[in-house]
Amino acid sequence: MVLLSGGLDSSTCLAMAREQGFVCHALTVTYGQRHQVELDAARRVAAALGATEHKEIAVDLGLFGGSALTDDIEVPKGRSEADISHGIPVTYVPARNTVFLSLALAWAEALDASDIFIGVNALDYSGYPDCRPEFIMAFENLANLATAMATEQGRRIRVHAPLIRMSKAQIIQAGLALGLDYGLTHSCYDPLGDGRPCGACDSCLLRAKGFAEAGITDPLWGP
């Protein structure tokens, strides 16, 4: 079970799971985000990487608001690396990864699958508390207390976060080595009207930093 947003990290995670020999079922959550560009990207990536099945499920976290990604709050632009690396920004969506992992866990158990992949990253990230190793370990423990698969069948559920200690450059290099076309992905928090990335939000800046450090041109910006 692979959570797939269509972004750089989750797409790399899908490529890694496939390389490890897993039969991959991809889950994309429409959570009330203000733009739909990433959903198109998720469909492209799932098809290109040969996901056995790709489901989309709607859980409207926009009903609660509280984030620049779901509410009428301005997305920060042009922040420095120091600003990005400190504090929790307004692009944090309350409990998003907890909700996503819960949905992935439900589908995984229905499929009799005991491995869940999520592309969280604790190095080049924007201060989100639900991207930390402590959170992943805590959710894995919860999954093994909350499911019939674990409590009755004795099968341990594993939450894989293979990118969690990698830099963005390392993630990009790993994806390219696995044949991932990053031109299929989308990372921007506030895309332009035609779907192109804004180039100035935290996600765009972290992506640009990763490609620069990897010495590779981002295909979204052309040769």
Structural features, described:
The structure is a single chain. With 223 residues, this protein is mainly α. The chain has a single domain, classed as HUPs (Rossmann fold), CATH 3.40.50. 38% of the residues lie in helices and 9% in strands. Helix 1 crosses helix 7 and helix 7 packs across helix 8. The radius of gyration is 17 Å and the shape is globular.
Write the layout of secondary structure elements.
Blueprint: E1 2-3, H1 8-19, E2 25-30, H2 37-48, E3 53-58, H3 81-84, H4 96-110, E4 115-117, H5 133-146, H6 148-151, E5 158-160, H7 168-177, H8 202-214
Parallel strand pairs: 1-2, 2-3, 4-5
Largest sheet: 3 strands, parallel
By DSSP (H or I, 4+ residues per run), the number of helices equals 8
Over the alpha carbons, how many angstroms does the gyration radius reach? 17 Å
Return the domain count: 1
User: What would you call the shape?
Assistant: globular
Give the neighbour order of strands across the main sheet.
1-2-3
Give a brief description.
The chain has 223 residues and is mainly α. The chain has helices at residues 8-19, 37-48, 81-84, 96-110, 133-146, 148-151, 168-177, 202-214, and strands spanning 2-3, 25-30, 53-58, 115-117, 158-160.
What keywords describe this structure?
223 residues, mainly alpha, Rossmann fold, 3-stranded parallel β-sheet, two-stranded parallel sheet, 8 helices, 5 strands, 38% helix
